[in-house]
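Homework-ish question, so no full write-ups if that breaks the rules, but can someone show me the predicted structure for this set?
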Amino acid sequence: MTDAEFRFVDTETTAANLPYGALIDALEAGFSQGCVLPVRHHHYIEKTGEPNATLLLMPAWSKPDDASQFLGVKLVTIVPGNTARGLSGLTSTYMLYSAETGQQLALMDGNVITSRRTVATSALAARFLARKDARTLLVIGAGRVASLIPEAYLAVRPIEKVLVWDISTESADRLVRSLNERNIASELATDLEHAVDASDIISAATLATSPIIKGTWIRKGTHVDLIGGFTPKMREADDAALALARAFVDTKEALHEAGDLVQPIESGLVAEGHVLGTLSDLASGRVNGRITSDEITYFKAVGSGLADLVAARMVYEQVCVKWQ
Ligand SMILES: NC(=O)c1ccc[n+]([C@@H]2O[C@H](COP(=O)([O-])OP(=O)(O)OC[C@H]3O[C@@H](n4cnc5c(N)ncnc54)[C@H](O)[C@@H]3O)[C@@H](O)[C@H]2O)c1
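A: Not a homework solution, just the prediction itself:
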């Protein structure tokens, strides 16, 4: 046995080796199979003259009896003070190892892994939860993650029209122009209530702290996908949206981390059992996804180290193994 070569995979190569169709299929297999997923670590970093920063460590590794043995850690720094510096507040790096030998295999751009695996995870959920004839997609938000939502959904549903709404009309307009340049037919949504009512799928990736989507606006048969809120204080949809829907999460951590679930559960509006299952339950067939064309479905994700590991392994096997 020789030492594994340690590779650095740059941003462009990481992105080019995560095409959505293949990534969604790999995530389906990964969520069905599972992996070892310790609770993520949060470390708070004191700062002077600006909000404190956070270091987040997200480890995951293959189960002992899995045929391929990988171990990965995503390292994420969150520096809110970067907004004032004109820099992105979030930076992440992915480190992949052999789980068999512990040897380092590759260092990758964690930002690309995060954004692509996030929208691919939502598209995978939609494979189980959105109507097969869903043609109109409303994207709420126009940032790093939201801008990738249409391409991922196009891999699973026959989307013909994308509507975009953001708190900043200028950002939404910029995203509409960029989608149209990539031949994804898109329009600016100026009236959010009307856009929600006109859509088969609603996917939100914002930093909102109070509900933007109202349950009373959502028509029958719609699938609602909430990507943004990751703390108990953040909300993207109101209580009615959850109460009306058959609800699912990416992992059980969402029940304790996401305000869209924590708040209605704490207030007693719905019990934890209102959430019918996780993406692992859906992917392994333990729980049924959409049952009727009329029901409203709801998917809340907070992100999973499993999805990071699946994506990093995919990049490694396509890029690094070929180099050897
Ligand atoms: N679930 C996951 O796995 C996962 C993964 C990555 C990011 N996220 C979350 O997705 C969200 C978006 O991340 P990003 O990297 O695209 O951020 P970003 O800063 O690039 O974009 C944020 C978008 O939200 C909009 N926005 C800000 N405040 C708003 C408000 N009050 N109401 C409506 N829109 C508002 C902004 O205009 C912007 O378009 C964040 O909350 C992030 O933590 C989730």
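Now go work out the reasoning yourself. Hint: The CA atoms of residues 15 and 75 lie 18 Å apart.
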